[in-house]
Amino acid sequence: MLILLLFAFVAGVVTVLSPCILPLLPVILSSSDGSGKQRPTGVIVGFIASFTFFTLFLSTIVQLSGIPSSALRSLSVVILALFGISLLIPKVQALIEQLFSRFANLMPSGQKRQGFWGGIVIGLSLGLLWTPCVGPILASVISLAITGTVTAQSFLITLSYAVGTAIPLFLIMLAGSTALQRVPWLVRNTSLIQKLFGVLMIMTAAAILFNVDRSFQTFILNTFPQYGAGLTKIEDNQQVQNALQTTTQQKKETDMKPTVLNTLALPKGPAAPDLVPGGEWFNSEPLTLADLKGKVVLVDFWTYSCINCQRTLPYLKTWWEKYHDKGLVIIGVHSPEFEFEKDPKNVAKALADFGITYPVVQDNDFATWKAYRNQYWPAKYLVDAEGFIRYSHFGEGQYDKTEETIQTLLEEAGMSAGSEPIDNPSYSTSARTPETYLGYARIENLVSREQIKQDALQTFTAPARIPDSQFAYVGDWMLTSEYAAPAPNAELLMQFDAKEVYLVARPKTTSGTIQVFLDGQASSLGDDVEDGVVAVDSDRLYKLIKLPSAGKHQLRLVFPEDSVELYAFTFG
Questions:
Q1: Using one digit for the tens of pLDDT, what is the confidence trace for 37-72?
Q2: ∠ at Cα 440 (303, 248), nearest 5°?
Q3: 249-412 belongs to CATH 3.40.720.10
Q4: Strand residues in 433-489 grouped as ranges (E)
């Protein structure tokens, strides 16, 4: 535990050198008001409290309250903008100081602590807005938080990381404040500098509101690929990894032996958790890893509407054909992202559509997912003939390496893999527009003048402009926590930067239609689009756009009738 606290603290300190800190710097510099340590101290206290709290509990807050995380982000942006305005307009500053003086008067130092309370509010906003460059330690804590498992250990680790990050930020603010007090030219021009800081803070708030901060960070990383590379490598050592395995050990809600994962000291790696019984099986009778001792087993976590998962299926099917009669067993663990993916009829249809013949088991309650402490779709775990996890890979790619490991484990088990050549095709799956969810629980990047009314029909007006990688509802829509349902003649507009566009959707009854327009023209470029129209006939992922190369375009979807539910866009 002490090892993780120490490395989390150090990881936080070195974060100041990473590209992820760039969006914070303008606000940090603007918080150097020349009044000494009061405001910088407040900013840091607020930042530590906010970052720690929201890292651990934001997912739970969104699920319980239904308030989308984007609404909390927007509130923080408004607070930053308000402080920027106060630096420009003395009357606004006087009103804010009057507000905080009520809190300050409760403190022994009275008026001297007004700057502290203002800093607290700024720090609280920053803690919610900031997205750090996540290394293995913080990633493990976040994955536990998403599944609702928050412990005293995860709290202390997050707190250590926040404190480590806060120290260099505090020194930056303190240096700025000292300079404003001691450098003659700065002292003479305090009013001008204060106004410049106000403009800087307002510009930063606007940049965050329109996701320019993220675009800028992406630009920096694309222009300087090595900038910040290696800063998280301090966490990549065996001591940290072993400590993480212990910290992220989850309580099992099954009758599995509690010591299943406590074998990390074994030279071959951890013993593979068995498949938790209870889910429906396809293409096979129920299997257990105990039954498969002597075989090499590939456990693949996936869900059928996930485009990243779909792109791994051809490789899995090829390996099944090449090696299943030589000792390889592939088991697809179907862990659903959306409610409709829990329906066994939908899963069976997807297996038929994709031509999957290897065994698949439903994991609707994420029991096996949790047993493996998995965090990703897709994820592959290779289990050797003795039942130990020897290799894992998350996401797409590394297909040659995975197949090489399959052959090695088959040879170890005395089952010749033959002279099968390894020749897996490779391709780029990068897209600048991120996955976009359309229900209010996880909605982001929505451009709208109207506040979202949860689970109620409302009218959206078209914005004058839609920034890159953002979208807008137009007309009458009903937003639920998981999906968006358009009324007749409603529209959806999106600016995307990608080669391919996919939409997870389902019909309300038996079928529905969507009209597709690309850059103002009817489009039939997607595999599921015919004469500019998508026929939504089942619960699945629909291929809307497939271009020769990636680029920036506008997508317009028109819904002639009240007949479909929309869940998420993905891009490639």
A1: 777 888 889 888 888 887 777 656 655 665 655 566
A2: 55
A3: no
A4: 436-437, 457-460, 471-479, 484-486
